[in-house]
Structure formats: C-alpha cells, structure tokens
C-alpha cells in the first residue's frame, strides 16, 4: 500500500461546516491525528478500528510538540496506513499545515490538502459581520493575535514580529486570531501606530458553537469591555467599520438552552443525535459516554429462524441491528425483512420503531409508554402461542415473565450487551461542572457512578439530574441520587421537552 497523508481542515466548530470531502476521509482513515478545536462530532464517523491520536495544544496547558506530530504522521504513513491530520479551521491558515506538508515532502510521502472553513471568516459571518462590504471595506487581512510582548503565550516559538504601522495603515478589515489574552497590547499598539481609537471592534467568542457570543466596542475601549465581559478563547477580533454591522445583521436566534452545559452519558454511537438536538437549542454539550454497545457474536453469529414465532418483540434499536444480523429462515437471504412476514412485530419506543422501519418493517404493536410494562398491557388481548424477544444481555424479565404467565412459549435471544467505557478524569470533572446531566438508561447510571468512584467525581448539588423514565429514576434513587427532571414520554424527545420545561420554570422563578 502506498503511504498517503491527508491534511484536512475541520472548520471552525459547527459540525455542519465540515466539508463533504472531510467527512469522506474521516470515514476511510486508518489513523486520525486531531486537534483540540475540531467539531465535537467530527470523529463520530471514524471507523471503530481507526487509531485516534490527540495532538492538540491547550492554551496554558499540555500540548503535543509539533515535531512529534509530524513524526507520528510520517511513522504511520511509512507503515502503510492512510493517515488523516485533522485540524480546526483551515490547515493553511495559522494551522501549520505548510510545515507539515514540507515535512511530508522531505520524507517522500504523498499528501493531499483539503481546505476547511477558516474561523476568521465563519465566526464573523455567524456574528453578522461581513468582513468586506461595499463602501466600508474592500480588503481583509487575517492576522495572528499571538505576540511575544505582554505574555508568554508564544514563548519559545520563532514568530515574525508584527508590523504594527503596516497593520494600522491597512485600508480594510483586520481579523485577528487567537489574540484575546493580548487584546490590551494589540489595541494599544495599533492606536500608537496610527489606527483610530474610535474604530469599531467586535470580539466573537466560540464562533459558530452553541456558546457563541459577541461583544462590541471601539479600538480604545474593547480591551476593557472584553475583560469586564470575561471573554475567553477561542475568540476572533474584527477591527474596522464592518464590525459595527454585527449589531444590525445579527441573525442567530435566541436559543432556550443558551449559556447552559448539558452532559450526555449515553454510548457515543447513540449520543450524537441527542447532542445535536441539544446544541441546536443552544446548549454546550459535555460528552461523557460511560457505556459502549457491544454486539454478542455468539460464536459465528448463529442463524436465527423467526418462522416458528407468531410474535417478535424488539426492545431497542440495538436489538434491531443484532436481530437482522442473524435473521435466516432458510428461504430468504440472511437479514432479509421478508423473514418476519409470518409474525406480528412489537417494538418498545419510537426509536426502535424507526430502526425497524429503516429495515422495511412497520411495527404492529407500539405501546403508549416506552417501557416493558406498557408493552405487556398492549399485548394483553393479542393471541400469542410462541414469542421471540430480541433484547440486551441482563435486561429485565418483565416482558418474558408476563408472556409465560399467559402460557406463551417464550424464547429470549440476547443480542448485545452494555459494557463500561473508560472516561478521562477531565471528562468526569466536566460532568460535575455541567448545569444538567442526562441519564438515558439504568446502565448509564451504574457505569457513571462506577467511573465516578474511581475518579472521585459525582454530580454537584448545583447540577440537575435528568432521567429518561421511571426505570432509570429508580436506579438513580437506589444509588442515592434524586432525579430533578423525568421525561414523559420516556424517550429522547420527552427528555428534551422535560429539560426545556425545567429551564423555563427556573427562569420564571428567577433561579
């Protein structure tokens, strides 16, 4: 296999701004070396067996030296792997992509450059600021805000001195990256070099992300305003007449979860849908997947013939996947929905029903409440002789016990299990600092508390606990935690609705 490396821009943070080419390469890569500021869900499409290596740099914190990053790219590529170097923004705009490309060329490794949407343009647009505008600015300069004067942010890096007189005289918009900590020095230097102190300035924090906010002032006042408003990185600063347009063109709607953080503890493969919904509502999502879904291989995935059953009950979307992997009636191709033609199919919850629908099956029975007890009630009048229940390992026996009491011959097939997913201590700490933490199953409760016991982190008194339904709430209480919010209906949509209602109620009470 010929060695090849892809230097790919992941955009400014909003997952919707990842390019189609970037998503395609993420799905195909053997090795992904990624930065801190890539979109939160950027790696969701990576292969399960892909090697994921963090090579980011934390401002004021630990970082992977650039030389080590380049060495890793070269080592993995020379071993025959398809390597993806995934960077926030664009690899050739303050992303050191040029240095990496030269290192690859020197090592004789083929590479491809995939541009990304750069933060200076995207964050400005999300804040309603056109960096060029007829009559106001016909040029734009992208400038690094890191300077050695005033702090140690760039200590040890061989950066060219900034030409303050040249920037002050530039006849257009200045967009500064990574300079929020040095804003007093930057503003003072530009004014001293001749840029008018009255010129409009905007600082956009967390551009394109759920927590985005903008502060406005003039070159003379912006440093004090940003300090008073506690503006933090990542931020970009826009200097010039167009900055004033942000207050007129601002287009992002007010979002009900704006300013709030919500921790999601469900499995990573399932968390993305919930996380996207929460982010669309303005929340900053803390990913803390404490479980992982693992399909049971059962040897060589023994075939499962559904033809003897007049009822097939499927308890979750994961059970749908496992069931179809094994469906084999000896007539139709393996995994063919026609194998279920002779049975009624019952599903617990709309998510399971959607997963069945995607396989060509419309559930015959869907209970009003999304728990086993409700399915028992829905099946009470249905004549059944033999039933197959597709479920997880160690699931509750409410449904099979109830059917057996009616004289039904019941076979339970366990198709997957929930296993613990290790979490870094910083992820556990982030949960304790979140405004809300969501639990979507009893297993997320148990495994989170197991992980918290090892890491010494439990939800703080200020963190509100959101449960997906009564069974999860009961598990929380058994472990000494009282849910503040319980979904009804007992699904993700119900959980989001209950969370929104709680936020609104607390806001009306002034809490």
SSE inventory with pairings:
Elements: E1 4-9, H1 20-28, E2 31-34, E3 51-54, H2 66-78, E4 82-87, H3 97-106, E5 110-114, H4 119-126, E6 140-144, H5 164-169, E7 173-177, H6 183-192, E8 200-205, E9 213-218, H7 222-228, E10 235-239, H8 246-249, E11 261-264, H9 268-280, E12 284-287, E13 291-295, H10 298-301, E14 311-314, H11 317-326, E15 344-347, H12 350-358, H13 372-378, E16 386-392, H14 398-405, E17 409-420, H15 425-433, E18 436-439, H16 442-455, E19 464-467, H17 470-478, E20 485-486, H18 492-508
Parallel strand pairs: 1-4, 1-5, 2-3, 2-4, 6-7, 11-12, 11-18, 14-15, 14-16, 16-17, 18-19, 19-20
Antiparallel strand pairs: 7-10, 8-9, 8-10, 13-17
Helix pairs in contact: 11-12, 13-14, 16-17
Task: Explain what this protein looks like in three dimensions.
With 511 residues, this protein is α/β, with parallel strands linked by helices. The chain is built from 18 helices and 20 strands. The chain has helices spanning 20-28, 66-78, 97-106, 119-126, 164-169, 183-192, 222-228, 246-249, 268-280, 298-301, 317-326, 350-358, 372-378, 398-405, 425-433, 442-455, 470-478, 492-508; strands at 4-9, 31-34, 51-54, 82-87, 110-114, 140-144, 173-177, 200-205, 213-218, 235-239, 261-264, 284-287, 291-295, 311-314, 344-347, 386-392, 409-420, 436-439, 464-467, 485-486. The strands form four sheets. The chain has a five-stranded parallel β-sheet, with helices on both faces. Strand 18, helix 16 and strand 19 (464-467) form a beta-alpha-beta unit. Helix 16 (442-455) runs parallel beside helix 17 (470-478). It is globular. The model is unreliable at 148-159 (pLDDT under 50).
């Amino acid at each position: 296999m010929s060695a090849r490396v892809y230097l790919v821009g992941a955009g400014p943070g909003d997952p919707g701004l990842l390019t189609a080419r970037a998503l395609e390469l993420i799905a195909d890569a053997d090795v992904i070396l990624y930065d801190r500021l890539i979109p939160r869900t950027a790696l969701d499409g990576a292969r399960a067996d892909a090697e994921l290596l963090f090579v980011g740099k934390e401002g004021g914190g630990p970082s992977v030296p650039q030389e080590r990053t380049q060495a890793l790219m070269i080592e993995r590529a020379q071993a025959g792997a398809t390597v993806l170097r995934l960077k926030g923004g664009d690899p050739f705009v303050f992303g050191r992509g040029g240095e990496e490309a030269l290192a690859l060329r020197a090592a004789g490794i083929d590479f491809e450059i995939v541009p990304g949407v750069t933060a200076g343009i995207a964050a400005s647009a999300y804040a309603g600021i056109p960096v060029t505008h007829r009559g106001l600015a016909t040029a734009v300069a992208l400038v690094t805000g890191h300077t050695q004067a005033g702090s140690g942010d760039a200590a040890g890096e061989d950066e060219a001195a900034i030409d303050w007189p040249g920037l002050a005289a530039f006849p257009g918009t200045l967009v500064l990256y990574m300079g929020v900590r040095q804003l007093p020095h930057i503003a003072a230097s530009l004014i001293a070099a001749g840029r008018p102190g009255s010129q409009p300035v905007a600082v956009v924090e967390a551009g394109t992300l759920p927590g985005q906010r903008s502060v406005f002032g003039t070159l003379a006042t912006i440093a004090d305003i940003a300090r008073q408003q506690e503006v933090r990185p990542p931020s970009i600063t826009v200097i010039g007449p167009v900055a004033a347009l942000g207050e007129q063109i601002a287009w992002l709607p007010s979002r009900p979860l704006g300013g709030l953080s919500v921790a999601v503890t469900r499995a990573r493969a399932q968390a993305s849908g919930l996380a996207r919904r929460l982010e669309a509502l303005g929340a900053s999502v803390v990913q803390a997947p404490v479980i992982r879904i693992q399909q049971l291989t059962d040897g060589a995935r023994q075939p499962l013939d559904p033809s003897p059953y007049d009822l097939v009950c499927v308890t979750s979307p994961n059970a749908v996947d496992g069931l179809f992997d094994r469906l084999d009636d000896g007539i139709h191709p393996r995994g063919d929905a026609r194998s279920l033609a002779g049975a009624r199919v019952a599903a617990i919850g709309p998510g399971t029903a959607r997963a069945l629908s995607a396989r060509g099956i419309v559930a015959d029975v869907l209970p009003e409440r999304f728990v086993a007890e409700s399915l028992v009630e829905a099946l009470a009048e249905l004549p059944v002789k033999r039933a197959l229940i597709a479920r997880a390992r160690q699931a509750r026996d409410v449904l099979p016990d109830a059917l057996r009491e009616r004289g039904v011959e019941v076979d339970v097939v366990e198709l997957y299990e929930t296993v613990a997913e290790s979490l870094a201590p910083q992820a556990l700490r982030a949960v304790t600092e979140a405004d809300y933490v969501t639990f979507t199953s009893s297993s997320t409760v148990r495994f989170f508390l197991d992980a918290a016991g090892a890491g010494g982190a439990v939800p703080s008194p200020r963190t509100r606990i959101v449960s997906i339904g009564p069974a999860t709430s009961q598990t929380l209480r058994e472990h000494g935690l009282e849910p503040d919010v319980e979904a009804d209906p007992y699904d993700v949509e119900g959980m989001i609705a209950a969370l929104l209602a709680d936020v609104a109620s607390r806001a009306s009470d002034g809490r």
